[in-house]
Write a structure and sequence with these properties.
This protein is α/β, with parallel strands linked by helices. The protein has 2 domains: 116 residues, Response regulator (Rossmann fold); 93 residues, Arc Repressor Mutant, subunit A. Helices cover 40% and strands 26% of the residues. It is built from 7 helices and 14 strands.
Length: 217
């Protein structure tokens, strides 16, 4: 199922939205405060975020800015009272009171656009990668990688969910330069990559095969 984060303090509204979107095939995680959803975003990156404009610990504008800085590829849809956005330009918005069908349509349209953007942005767990600028982020912090580390991570994320052999990674990173690296070269590079990415749970070692990136609960 597609994961959606929803920050909303009104339990009646959030329950109705969650039940409706669940029937449409979405897994909705509801958070009652902005701080709660921030903590969740540090652990897992969803496909989309729904944000109620007025929250007890802040407003949706600041949260939207934080999300765009921290999880750049995640689209945000605001749910706000008419005239409540004050010039803010999120990825989309729905005006209260709203029909659930209208919200679903907005989500589906935004998800289609996101699918078109997946070639530029990749994510797995707390890690996100921006291909155009060759930037890597971990829990919102930019991580500096050398060329070998970046190419390994990019290839693993492009093949998320599939095991990539050690031989394939060595061919990809080193053999094109006419080098013949030792098996230990890859081991050392992967160790360094894991340390820079704070030992991510989503980067798995496949025994006697190689490595695999996969989303974790």
């Amino acid at each position: 199922m597609v994961d959606i984060y929803y920050v909303e303090e009104d339990k009646n509204i959030s329950r109705a939205v969650k039940e409706f979107l669940s029937r449409a095939g979405y897994q909705v995680w509801v958070f009652p405060t902005i701080e709660d959803i921030r903590q969740a975003l540090r652990n897992m990156i969803p496909a989309l975020v729904l944000v109620d404009w007025n929250m007890p610990d802040g407003n949706g504008n600041r949260l939207c800015q934080w999300i765009h800085q921290t999880c750049r590829e995640v689209p945000v849809i605001f749910i706000a009272a008419r005239g409540g956005l004050h010039g803010v330009m999120p990825d989309g918005y729905v005006v209260k009171p709203f029909e659930l069908d209208a919200l679903l349509l907005r989500i589906q349209n935004r998800m289609r656009k996101r699918e078109q953007d997946t070639r530029q942005y990749l994510s797995c767990g707390t890690i996100s990668l921006e291909r155009n600028q060759m930037k890597v982020f971990c829990s919102g912090d930019e991580i500096r990688l050398n060329s070998s580390e970046y190419r390994i991570l990019l290839y693993l994320m492009q093949n998320k969910g599939r095991a990539v052999t050690r031989k394939r990674l060595m061919e990809l990173v080193w053999d094109k330069k006419g080098n013949t690296p030792s098996d230990n070269t890859l081991t050392v590079t992967m160790k360094r990559l894991r340390e820079k990415l704070r030992q991510p749970a989503c980067l798995k070692t496949v025994h006697r095969v190689g490595y695999r990136m996969e989303d974790v609960d």
